[in-house]
Amino acid sequence: MLNIAIFGPPGAGKGTQSRLIIEKYNLAYISTGDLLRGELAAGSELGKQVKAVMDAGNLVSDELIVKILEKKINSFENVNGILFDGFPRNLVQAYILTGLLTKLNTELSCMISLEVPEKELMKRMLKRAEKEGRSDDNPDAIRNRFKQYHEKTQPVEMFYKEMGKCITVNGLGDIDEIYKRIINAIDQCL
Length: 190
Ligand code: AMP
Hints:
Elements: E1 4-7, H1 14-25, E2 28-31, H2 32-42, H3 45-55, H4 62-74, E3 82-85, H5 91-103, E4 110-115, H6 118-132, H7 139-162, E5 166-170, H8 175-189
Helix pairs in contact: 1-8, 2-3
Bound molecules: adenosine monophosphate (AMP).
């Protein structure tokens, strides 16, 4: 299986690039953010539990994340591999991912880390706020999401770098240009 995690700060373009990557490599896709937003939209019990946490830009508990991940993974049949977007988001989740993939007799092939300067990220996110109206794309929540990213998520990158599994990709430029860099990086770990 080809299992990839796409990593980077909020607004780095993970969602946009994920759509192109899953098509090229025929991968199943798990975006924990999308799954959570799905629960919110459906008005489920889990959705009600996470709404305030997400609106404030905080991280949802690892326990709930495992629940939605397992449900999603169990729905897959005969997949070529999985692309994880927005997960793992802290070191505990990195260990959880290892466990989940071991159960499937596989492992993470590589992590693609998109690098984008913070000034550009803020610009992109405010633009997205106008277009998509996500309730966590307001300045206070955005600031907190960056804070959470620096404190809890960034150490995950070092974890995979030390394992020799993380490739950094320049996330500045047009969508196609960044996509080509990502494909080159993935081909390196195939
Ligand atoms: P995203 O769409 O990946 O930017 O995620 C939006 C929000 O969903 C985050 O700010 C968190 O509140 C929550 N979230 C998404 N993925 C995770 C995760 N792996 N762990 C904890 N919270 C998450």
